[in-house]
## 1
Amino acid sequence: MAAAQDTGALEEIIVTATKREQTLQDVPISVAVTPAAVLEQAQIRDLIDLQSVVPSLKVSQLNAVGQTNFIIRGFGNGAGNDGIESSVGVFIDGVYRSRSAAALDDLPEVERIEVLRGPQSTLFGKNVSAGAISIVTRKPESEFGGSAEVGFGNYDSKYAKASITGPIGDTLAFRLSGNINQRDGYLENSTTGNDVNDRDRWAVRGDVLWTPTDAVSLRVIADYSEINEVCCGVVQLRNGPASQVIGAPTSVGGMGRPIDDPATLFDGNIVFNTDPANALSGRGISAQLDWEFGAATLTSITAWRNQKNQSYQDVDFTGADIVNKDQANDISTFTQELRLASSGEGRVDWLLGAFFQDESLDTGVDTIYAGDIRGYADRLSGPSANSPGMSNLQFFEYLQGLVTPQIVPGQTYFQPGQGISDHYAMDQRSYSVFSQVDFHVTDRFTLTGGLAYLDDRKEARSNVVMNEPFSALDLQNVPQLPYLGLPANAFAALGGLQFFYGNTANHGPVNYPNANESGVLEGDKLTYAVRAAYDFGAFNAYASYSTGWKAGAYNLSSDSRPPDVNGVGRSAGPEDVEVYEIGLKATFNNGYLNVAVFDQSIDGFQSNAYTGTGYNLVNAGEESVKGVEIDLSYAPTNWLALTAAATYLDAEYESFTQAACVSYDTVRCPVDPLTGRMPNFRDLSGQRPAGIPEWTASVSATLSHEFGSDYTMFLRGEYDYVDDTWLTETTPPDISTWGQSVVNASIGLTNQAQQWDISIWGRNLTDDETIVASFPTVAQDGSYSGYLYPPRTYGLTLRKRF
């Protein structure tokens, strides 16, 4: 529900969270709804902005515009690794978006956004083990109309959006919309002098609605979008010894190259030797048929989508030219959903559905050494005690060269152009059948049962080529050294320079399918939900138990290892979700209060920890979270509307014995003095998972006032709070524990007769300085990097409706 601007009464919000229209207060699940008016007033342009009004939802964009992570109630994964699908399903007009980047485009003509919390498998066909985000756009209308808006802001922001709708004959209507969004970057690369974290994107969308009869409608939507941005800036949280070597003057043995200073995290400067580049395009077409006949309605949604994403980045994040990454993917997805739902006029409401997905994915990452790599490796290896003037690496090459002349000091290992090429292809076919039955025992008491069967098959192929001879060495058994009278492990301490496959038995990739690995990952699951709801008059109450499931995942990154090599990396098994929940939805004079209390656990949580060169993909034994969600809306007068929402999460790893080892945890991850290597795993059982804040909250107040019969003015303020949270387990908590305290505001004037309005808005007005994600710096052990929350932005928007 939302407060009306001209009265103290509340307008009913209609949602389709249960695949049929119900009011927000009647739907017996935990769902947050953001209507179009709030989206406009709060200047919510994409799903990253949406989290400011939905505390249980967290959205983060990482080192590329194609890497976006959605988390509900602390659960969610998949960012940065194309083989892992999100635990939060994103649907736009009923169409499933398989990869999160496809939902990042600036939002079209939106009617509302529904965030459904907890497993939704009995109503949605795919990957909703943690929840779902459903975006509903405005349909074409049978009368001509439209809107146009332009906006300007700081950082030379320019924004334009237009939409027109109307009839094409008696039974056909259309809506055509488009937008363009540009902005300078709010960071500056001090090495190149160019802006970073800019915005440059545009999209067009065509929507046609055919209603030949009152019982039949067909809606066809086609869209295309592009993003070409210099993104995303990274700051240093800590410079370890390796980074300090890069920054130290040459007079003391350093490289004399600029590095970022952790003491100036928020000065707006970053240090890359090249600017990061991103190019992403998305296109798709969908058709939805709704056919009402008698006691039921048949719905068919057919869709095809394609997404291409390419990025190029300096991933050592310094002014030295050490290593660069060229990454791209191409994802094509076909989906088909069929639903048959009862009319809702009897004692029993029912829904039957089926979902099918066919997806092909090609992805590749080339991590290539650059011009400064050799000097960097020599300095990391340290000066040789046996041969003054040589590094340990050079002396190692010299000894090898005595037996193998092809090995030349300074010319064999760590050369520009060497590196690793990770290329993968994956075909996925999945289907599900789902059902739900609501039995209205009385006019007030309803029992609900849902059942879903999900089946998933992934067939993956790898083509990984390592052109990096040093990582391919077994440093404890180099053939040449025994001939020279040296022990076999004389240079094992150089293992810290083996950035790829140093801790595997074969010191190299193993491609699949092969004799031992089929490259096929299959699984299926029966999930269900039961719920009881009672209407007490002044409030509704419900209690539910539900299960969810997400299929197994392949690790499409450099840390992908065969299952018999250290037991880590190749794939992860499915996630099984179980949730107990009770809720209360109370409606009172000019307001409502919704409360949900839940106990949610994931057995086999797919942990996707970034370790500095790749992703450590393993299943945690069990992760659980107990929590409370509160949503409040109150309009005490006809000129004031208040909202408040809060989420409390008490999370724990019930069992996690194979968490990725990290260098800062010297107790659980001691370094072997003979190899220079840590164990692969540590035990995090009993520990609170990183990335899950204990408290999140948002509040808003909207003042509105009419001037005569034509003018209405509003003033809106928002406060978004996230308590201090350890961001990720692979970075030390003392430098990666951050919270948020963000203030947004807007003021606007509307002329109702002439249908125009003007608004002034600001986001993060207090310029809250915080970090939203952290990770180990690439190839610099002991160094850690992070991503900044956007600084203060503000602007002016002019809108005209007709």
## 2
Amino acid sequence: MEYHEAADFCFDLRRFRPKPGTESTARLLAHLEDPHADVDFVQIAGSNGKGSTARMLERVLREAGYSVGLYTSPHLEDLRERIRVDGRKIPRAAVCDFVESAREYITDRAADGESPTFFETMTAMALWQFGREDVDVAVLEVGIGGKYDATSVVDPTASAVTSVTLEHTGILGDTEAEIARDKAHVSPDDVPLVTGVTGAPLEAVRDVAGEVVTVGTATDETEPNEGVSAGDSTPGPDVRVAYGGRTNHTEAAVSIVADGWDVETRIPLLGEHQAVNAGIAAALAAQIGDVSDAHLERGLRSAFWPGRFEVMNTEPLVVLDGAHNPGACERLAETLDTYDYDRLHVVFGAMHDKDHRAMIDALPTPDAVVTTDPSLDRAEDPAVLAAAFDDAGAVSIRVEAAVQDALATALDAAERDDCLLVTGSLFTVAEARSRWTRTDVPKRVRDLSDAREALEDANVAAGDVERLDGDAVHRVVRTVLRDRQATVLKAELLRLGGECALSGLERDDEAVDAVLMGTLTQFEALVERLEARARPHGLTDVARELRDVLERDAGAIDGDGADGADGVDDSRRATGTRSRGVSRSDADRAAGGSEAAFPWTDRTAVMGILNVTPDSFHDGGRYDAVEDAVARAESMVEADVDVIDVGGESTRPGAAPVPIDEELDRVVPVIDRIADLDAQISVDTRRAAVADAALEAGADIINDVSGLEDPEMRFVAAEHDAGLVVMHSIDAPVVPDRDIQYDDVVADVIDRLSERVLLAEKAGLDRERIIVDPGIGFGKSSAESFELLDRIDEFHALGCPVLFGHSHKSMFARVGRDHGERLEATVAATALAADRGADIVRVHDVPENVAAVRTALSARDPERFDWTA
């Protein structure tokens, strides 16, 4: 079964209307032999905030060392986002396996008029995956209500109700008290229900749950107990939270105090309501297991949750928030009020079953609004929303059919000191967010085998693969689009003589994989056509991204219709590291930056490894004395190294973490001594405190093998305007023999790195200062490491320089080289990486690898690269 067939099967179940009760889900799970039986579950219900709370709890538990499943809805771009294990989306192969196991049963039930719904099936898939992965704890976001929700098929070990507002009244009840009673049925038998509910709904929760742990601000008070006079209230909440306001444009300070523990930290989710959600997550974590204050502090701060008051830019201020009901819009308005801006621009798209007028009334009155229509059948007509904004007093109102066009219109109108808010629905936010997250990947196609692989990886139907593989031997670009965009793009490229293959999954509300095939001339004409007719299909961003990727892949499109040379042109190193406009204004970028200071802007650079540790896998103990380390650095410079990477903690398999003071004592004196050498200095560390001290001592670059697991790291890099290497890693130090399932290791790693890069960018770094590293050996097999080497050029889709770190690693056992015998294989891989477009190679043996890089570059362009000059 192909993935698009499995996904289509699931989406087709949307034709069945939701129905109350857990029986259908329980029967489906019984058919699957109850794979979830040995998993501990946490249920989180609520009108608003349940997704954010689930994410915060999941991050805290993972920080404490638990393996954690997370089930949330809806998804932003990909069905698989709903089901995660330790942060990783369920693989496409697993979705296929599940549907294969359940399809016959579901079809038979449908024939009897009792088919599981889409949500019930997705819930069963989540529980099935969590059982297969043997997670310690699974956190479930409740769909609707609590008593009859599909997730209530489990017996939770802990649960929460975050908030209660009037919603789904036709199902849950006509009053907040009735809705609260329904949601409170997620309460476990022997553990108090945790809740942020106050007032009369809290009493309704108590009627159902019995024992309750309340969470709220220090000024909150519970309702009087029965028999107590109205003037005497019970004490404030059991868990008190205080919202300290924003500490920067993306984080806020919170403190949480309970009986026997307290914590102060920062969270990347803004607003006082998110402080309450953090308190709920902390209280749940305390019920579940062994969680320290340090785990709470770091876990809560690492709980990034896309589309929930997400600040994408500061000049102008651009905020994405999926507020979808009046209560959420009220809290959004309160948080937005903490920012200073001149004019407010709003992009608004909502579902037709929402109370649009109440939502609009809860928001600040915008100076300009663009209503729009996310690609969903349930979306409200933008003209209807425009009328509601007109009644609310909005000054300037426009209608755009596509979310991307609405966003482009608003961005064009917004000035540096204005605010642009995208809201009304998570579906609207998802389509807008693609401006910052979509990656157009150039595919290197050498023969028919490569062509077929490129098509099959995009879930193109088998018949189309056979028909089109011969057309995919020129330039090939893989991208992800909305269905309406993909249809227009395919028609335009066909008119130009090119080809376009779309995945079998073609739905208005889902992303579509598209593989574009043609000559450079055809691609140039396609870009020009898209730019000329960008509206009303939201193709402005598509044209811009496509032009960027073609320039990186084959040199700038020169406009005269001539094809450029095949292969990777080195001009992309000087011009191809685009920034998507998160932290600095376009005017600032036009004025130039410090990109030219990096050696990899015009060629592949060599980063030499200097391990000042006693236990690193290749050279541990050789340079742990300062004088020995300095001498080693000097010899690297003599051999023409470009960057010296100083590391004070081994990440080899099984290595023990080094105390922070010891790591500082190892690296800072060395960096201080070598800072004036004719090479840039990098510090190889997972800890922000070590990075900060190293940069103060003279380092230029942070090499973070954990991929920003320390939430302070990105801010340290931004404060120093340093280079930042962001590596994809499953574990650091490496966990031996850990089996990670990838559908396509390159695509999956790019997908994961795209969010990590965006985090760094939102902290204030431009993409030319963010280097991506696919993480050879960190959660990849030898075969997967070689696949990453062969396709290293695809990582330029992220718009960042690319580092390849392979020196003496276990991948070379695959070619018969044991530890201590891998120099020749390392040098060969260096030459291949340089030829395929790596910007930096990280190696132990500098002279040999410098020679390999120079040989590879000279072979590609002998006129340009003359190393004797």
## 3
Amino acid sequence: MKKSVIILLLCFVFTVNAQIKGTATDKEGAPLSSVSVYLNNTFTGTTTNDNGDYILDIKKPGKYAVVFQIIGFTTLKKEVNITSFPFELDIVLEEENVQLKEIVISTKDNPANRIIRNVIANKDKNTDKYSNYTAKFYSRGLYKIKDAPEKFLGQNMGDFGGGLDSTRSGIVYLSETVSEISFQKKSKKFKEKIIASKVSGRDNGISFNRAEDANINFYENSVEFGNDLISPISADAFTYYKFKLEGSFYDKNGKLINKIKLIPKRKNDRVFNGFLYIVEDDWALYGADVSVTGAQVNIPIVDALHLKQNYNYSVENDAWVLISQSIDFKVDAFGFKFDGRFSAAYSAYNFSPNFSKNTFSNEVLSFEQNATKKDTVFWNKLRPVPLTKEEVKDYLIKDSIKLVRKSKIYLDSINKKQNKLNLLSPITGYTYRNSFEKWSLFFNGLLGNSNFNTVQGVNTTLGFNYFKRLNDKGERWNSGVKANYSFSEKRIRPTFFFTKKWNYISRPQIGVSGGVTTAQFNDREPISALDNTIRSLYLRDNYFKIYEKEFAKITYSEEIKNGIFFSTSLEYANRKPLFNINNYSFARQSKNAPYTSNNPLDQADYENAAFTAHKIATLNIGATFIFNQKYLSYPDRKFNMGNDKYPSLTVNYRKNFGASNTALNSDLFTANLRQGISTGNYGDLTYNARGGLFLKKKDIAFMDNLQANGNQLTFVMDYQLNSFGLLDYYKFYTNDKYAEAHIEHNFRGAILSKIPLLNKLNFHFVVGSKALFMSDKNPYTEYSVGLGNIGFDKWRFLRIDYVKSNHAGIKNDGFLFRLSLF
């Protein structure tokens, strides 16, 4: 009874607020979604929902011309005389009547090419007409699932928020956002203020539907659509596309609209399929109906993305501007079948805004106070696109059960199921949760925490972590103990830690830790324990050089100002050398015996260590500067976006003092400069430069030297740009001056897509260069060429590089195989 009353109330609210309402269908009676509905010669409008329903809010009775527009159907203009409200207006749209007139096509060109060239030539002219504007933006995100699996990898998947029916199908995510946006073309600035945000079944109501993310702009050479795709009207369009004029038709104002088919020259390029609609003489976009595959946007689990855009003519500035957009997607992977849509509507454009010097800042997104707490009555007045019955039901069900799901009885019942132990818990790990009290206890299992090295033999680490969340603003603390047991040494090395965080804005964090552990001589950890285990057991290679450290440490970090991150640490340690005690390997003893020693300075010296045992204190003070950092301000947190126009700089001062041998004390300054630059259709450029300087050259402990990250593996599972490909792990180190530089350019499809036969493979061409300089050694350099995006179908995670190195006239070369997920 109570639910029926709520539904009736909602229907009443819809009716009261609806001025003009109705349904848009095709000739077969099928509902048409994403139809733009607006008053003629204005941007007062809305779009139809997935059921074809719309509500157009107007202020007073009178005569109006209502326009219905969607790509693929003939635009309809209805003259109406409204004397009372609500006014019902159902319409039927006919498919567009595209006609191809007899045209004499020369052997040098075709009419579609002429049209596209004119569009490219007029891009700046057209976009200058709305170079500054403000507008209202509405977006809706909807994910649905069909036949959801009950378990995945042994884990219960739950009911996805409570929106599934008996077949485990239904809505798993529904969100809406209404915001005010400001845009400036020159120097390209964007700002968004969210007026209202809502997520079905969630308390905080924070939707991540951003207007800037929805800004898919074909007028740019590179279109941000999951990946940087080549625009069909980019400066290089004819390198990637062929074009065909499908026909033309006249719009409601008598403008001739050309329908241009996009024909990719190579299907594996980062290009679109589908149609562009171009306004004759204005040479502006009238609409787009295009699609891309998941492989093209580097989201392999997505089958396809389908984009539709509708533009409307503005009399005020003689321009065609975007009024609606929809993105549809389908996912079918690992037993999950998702489909969804992100729809957006733009209205209330102002092309003569009064921007001041304070209009735009590094804060590109903000929330109005209480934007996430708007009630149903407010939303029904504000929402420009009506909800479907399915969406209304989802809000009702999830909003009614969210209070229940926060209750102690419900959370305890869920935890009772989650907290059950099973036979694999000691291996995979186990978590005990108390969701109502907001704490959990985690036991890390043997899986992923066991390895082999020549010092400890087989060793495993077991431990417990306790986590407590104090509030939703980021205040929390975490503590734990771990114990590493070495079967060869027959000894335990215990450690503990405690961390406390206060908020999600500046993210201040303090940490205390201590105990007994092992550490690599190079604190940049050039080889992982897993890689070393595999190489040792199967090939009898020993690259993992470690020492023992008894330590106590305190750390603190915080973003003290936007883009300025401060960090410091103080550690007191007792460092002790370790020696090989285990010579076991799957490899035959006679094949490659024995293992090299644990001395990185002389791997044939099994008697002497790389350093003498000592005690020492280490103070680090560092700062990272992300210049002109853009950020998003949410009600209880801050998301930093960085700024790829500028590099980020990290500087650090390290002071070693209080050593049991005063000769080991030292002062070191280091700096690191790095940046990733998108070059649009020509791929991505990345560089990383690092340098260091000791105030005084001294005979310090080996692990305190500046060291390069080497590599002696043919197959690398954890590749870092700041690693050298063919350099032995501990060959280069210094206690004086040091510098290294790495640069890499991934051309993606910009080069290989132009080579016949190779372009069918969809490989990416990658080039790189590396250099290492030390005051007491000759320079070391590397150059590489490689192929990325190697694989099959959607799964392309392999990269192969050919590397050549040069040091003091000694040259070397080799192939590297790498996992590359991006």
